[in-house]
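=== Per-residue structure ===
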Amino acid sequence: MNTALNSPVVTILWFVVLIAIFWFLLLRPQRQEQKKRDAMIKGLHRGDRVVTMGGMHGSIVDLNDETALVRIADKVEVTVSRTAIGQVLQSRDTTVIGPRARQDKDAQVSDLARGIDMEDRPK
């Protein structure tokens, strides 16, 4: 009986069991969280309310492949890495705030300040 416990097959079996336990308790959950995070980063849209890893709250104004322009206050925008966004608080429809809508709104405001009517404005 003592020789059966010292068998190389039993030793290998114990290593396999320990590796399986290690996989299911540590590595698998970590990979699942990483997949969720990657999906969150890929699913960012203009208008989303976000919190950065540094704790700044704001809404996304513009996006590109690696960075996001986040408005943290009126007339205050910061560029952060997409990976620096830690959490999406509220997702908004991408058609609400887009680059073209923002340009049109800014043009309307500046035209009104100069006294130009919207009908007189060149397209």
Notes: Residues 8-42 form the longest helix (35 residues). The first strand starts at residue 49 and ends at 52. Residues 6 and 12 are 11 Å apart (CA to CA).
